[in-house]
Amino acid sequence: MPAPDLVTAELRLTGRIMTASNATFLGSIGDVRVVYKPIAGESPLWDFPDGALAHREVAAYLVSQVLGWDIVPHTWLRDGPMGEGMVQLWQERDPAQSPVDVVATDDVPETGWKQVLEGQDENGRMVALVHEDSPALRRMAVFDVVVNNADRKGDHILAMADGHRHGVDHGLTFHRDHKLRTVLWGWLGDTLTTEERDGLDRISEGLRGGLGRSLADLLSAEEIASLAARCARLRLAGRFPAPSGGMPAVPWPLF
Question: Are residues 90 and 26 in the same domain?
């Protein structure tokens, strides 16, 4: 059976993700499973008043493609049962893996993990937020700095059975002002690798060509200029940034 046209073939809804803050549906296009977020179901946000969040999700995918790290699953705009929205290929995560976790402070692994912060749980027990120390998550942390991700929760990182990590839920990205809120602070101050610097160069080059033209249909000129400036600053600094500004450095809830 030939693959369906993902833009024009019928999109059928099969369920709804009730934990999402915006209307988010499971669906299928032929035998292809997808996530569908209609623009009509987006909740208004005081700090993201301009443009559709669905456009930002697609913009994040385009940046991910230029980076070449396959962070964001295939994402596109199309019409659906509730009007135009973002559609993304469904990813079946491995429930046995937890790239980000909260553990008792006495149980923080000595190797292979990075500790982000400590606090108390609802029972007064001291706990720590940790994430794995892996190239896949390092690349995602670089990506989040570039797109100015304001909502990198632990559950927005999908662990694939083969060790790959996908990032999802990128509606709160590309703001002109600094908005970075993430659980991936474990490499603070670490020097960027050659691979990571090369990725930044690919974005900067792409913004002067095809990537810039594609993003012009999704983001404002000011947002694209801010994206270019973030790439340039990170490339010049050559290391992971520290939290800055008056906003919290991590999203809430964490998961």
Answer: yes
